[in-house]
């Protein structure tokens, strides 16, 4: 179905995507615009690998050091997108420099359907950044291109589809000075779409340009019309210079507010912007709950805001002085960002998932929903002992933090990594956003030990596992679920499809 938008001033009508009858089951990072990582159906059993594919043909491998016994892969990989008909759209990096493409494959078999290349260039970075991608509720896929542009493609289940290119500052301006914009303007966050198909993202600007762009946040509607606001103006703070790299915008359930973090390169603010105008509605400085000084915002983090069913906002930061075993904090705010609530005891590189109350045993707590978080305790930082866990947290119950004097969210359930690490302790849980298989009362997590696990919440145990590859130290990666319950994990620069 197509919606038709007509201007009253002229007799021009533009066809724009209408709401799809069969909306995508996994639209991008953490499944949806609130980043809840909600499973679309009942997950299959972790019995075998259906198929696998390379998602990085030349991963950035850092040699082992005094902190690591073996080499490690320091790059964040974008989450695949999955249609209602179970076509999986996989972001793939083909060379060391980038040269990205989207490979669409059949979810059941991994058989190729189509490939679309993009000229996207990664911004300057330490750890590699994920390719910015997203699929809207109208089944339009967006992928970042060079110069801060985006490409789109419709009918993702078909071998061909309508496609095009947009620039938030005007495509004519981009084409007039293409080389200049390609060198100096880059999208540096994942893309997020609201329910109407309008997209939002952060971008970085490295030099002056004819469009007078400065690093900030952009919005493009379904007709290609764009607006933007600089991070500095959005925060109303001359010291703010950028959007936090990798911080995917989150959108309130009613579609009125876009949440995103901006920084001066080290500390910053969480903002709530008007979803139509990008005018700032809400703002809060991100503070370390222990030292009461500005928390650190790292460009190596892949943390993004998660919005709870009650509209509360959760966002992970790094501690101010490295005295929390490099765990960071999960900060918690009301939707208008005026009230800060109890923090969680981990957050720096994690986007928490929402766990419905029905997925937990009766009597687990009084909250209407819970949070699933990574819960590392790094052996090479502060007093960390390497006892790395994942946790289900109650945002409305408290306990004393084990590693500080701060009162934190109560741990409802935790699971320790099962495999000893050559660095000491156990291997880290290799996940930055995890699919919550609520119908099976479980969460799918993958580990640097090379296995994917089903964490059964009824027994608080690792009930199933499937071997994926040899143990690999790496930046954190997502798990997700397809339309038929196939489970997907990214591990060691590979995408694995797992099920019955």
At a glance:
The protein has 500 residues and is mainly beta. It is built from 3 helices and 38 strands. β7 (87-93) and β8 (100-106) form a beta hairpin.
Keywords:
38 strands, 4% helix, 3 helices, single chain, disordered N terminus, globular, five-stranded antiparallel beta sheet, mainly beta, 500 residues
Textual characterization of the structure:
This protein is mainly β. Helices cover 4% and strands 37% of the residues. The strands form ten sheets. Strands 14, 15, 16, 17 and 18 form a five-stranded antiparallel sheet that branches. Strands 19, 20, 21, 22 and 23 form a five-stranded antiparallel sheet that branches. Strand 36 (479-481) and strand 37 (487-491) form a beta hairpin. It is globular and about 60 Å long. The protein starts with a strand and ends with a strand.
- Percent helix, as a range, is under 10%
Which whole number gives the mean pLDDT? Answer: 93
What structural class do helix, strand and pairing data support?
mainly beta
Total count of helical runs of at least 4 residues: 3
Radius of gyration: 21 Å
Tell me the β content. Answer: 35-45%
Give the distance, in angstroms, between the N- and C-terminal Cα atoms: 35 Å
Main sheet? 5 strands, antiparallel
Give the CA-based shape.
globular
Poorly predicted residue ranges: 1-17
Count the strands?
Answer: 38
